[in-house]
Design goal:
The chain is of the alpha/beta class. It is built from ten helices and five strands, in the order ααααααααβααββββ. It has two domains: about 1-160, no CATH class; about 170-255. It has helices at about 1-25, 45, 50-55, 65-80, 85-110, 120-135, 140-160, 170-180, 190-200, 205-210, and strands at about 185, 215, 235, 245-250, 255. The protein has a five-stranded mixed β-sheet, covered by helices on one side. The radius of gyration is 25 Å and the shape is elongated. The model has no long low-confidence stretch (mean pLDDT about 75).
């Protein structure tokens, strides 16, 4: 009974910590019924879920599923063999309760399982791993710690591809050299605000007041790529024939549409 009482106290404490987010979730509940870009929850994703939270693996590259499944098994073993004290109970509940809720929502309602959205679970996970390592005998402790550090560095620095930031600035500079009053700039939703920023910073003041920057999207802009921040008049699904359009595509190429 004493253990059950403590578990209930832990659950109540965790619920209080997450209570501020309930209002946010309720306010954004309509997102659950709309299309979302996160892939459907699958068995490979489930088996690699623990290491996904720890390492930030988001199913890319997919060839590393097996490796992250093995790492998840190691993390489960660490949880099982960690010292069973009050801190262990608190961290286990802090980790598993939110994770299972997210998994259930992803299976039955809408896929929302993504490592970047679960970064807060890294804290109890790191504490569990740390308590396990600290409880090991001195020599084994150092060996395991060294192995874990090497594996972590390997995963962080070798497995994940290097992502080069899209060079919007140079494209805007090229457009500024060619554009004239009466022309328009079209870009993708993901590059819209960055294009606005560089154009306002680098273009002549007259251009920034008279040349509009719009988002071109052939269908309705999905809500999850910033639609709520883009004004309706700045979104179009047609290319006019009476104006010269400088289109900066998602592949960072510039296309000029003109009737002249």
């Amino acid at each position: 009974k004493e253990i059950t009482k403590k578990v209930k106290q832990y659950i109540l404490l965790i619920a209080l910590f997450y209570l501020p987010w309930v209002g946010v979730f309720w306010h954004q509940a309509n997102l659950i019924i709309q299309d979302f870009w996160v892939e459907k929850f699958s068995l490979p994703l489930f088996f690699s879920s623990l290491s996904s939270v720890y390492f930030g693996y988001e199913n890319t590259p997919i060839i590393y599923h097996r490796l992250f499944t093995v790492l998840s098994a190691v993390i489960i073993a660490i949880m099982v063999f960690s010292p069973k004290n009050r801190l262990w109970k608190f961290n286990m509940l802090s980790f598993w309760v939110p994770l299972l809720i997210v998994v259930l929502i992803s299976i039955f309602l809408r896929p929302i399982f993504l490592a970047r959205y679960l970064s807060f679970l890294t804290i109890p996970l790191v504490l569990l791993i740390s308590s396990f390592i600290s409880a090991l005998p001195r020599k084994i402790n150092l060996v395991f710690l060294a192995i874990w550090v090497v594996v972590s560095l390997y995963v962080f620095n070798i497995l994940f591809p290097v992502r080069i930031k899209t060079d919007i600035r140079s494209k805007v500079v090229n457009v500024i050299g060619l554009i004239k009053e009466g022309d328009e700039i079209y870009t993708s939703p993901l590059n819209y605000f960055e294009t606005q920023y560089y154009f306002a910073k680098l273009a002549p003041i007259d251009y920034t007041k008279t040349i509009p920057i719009k988002v071109f999207y052939p269908t309705e802009v999905p809500f999850y790529i910033g639609k709520v921040l883009i004004k309706n008049e700045a979104i179009t699904n047609q290319i006019p024939t009476d104006k010269r359009i400088f289109a900066i595509g998602q592949d960072n190429e510039i296309t000029i549409f003109s009737r002249f």
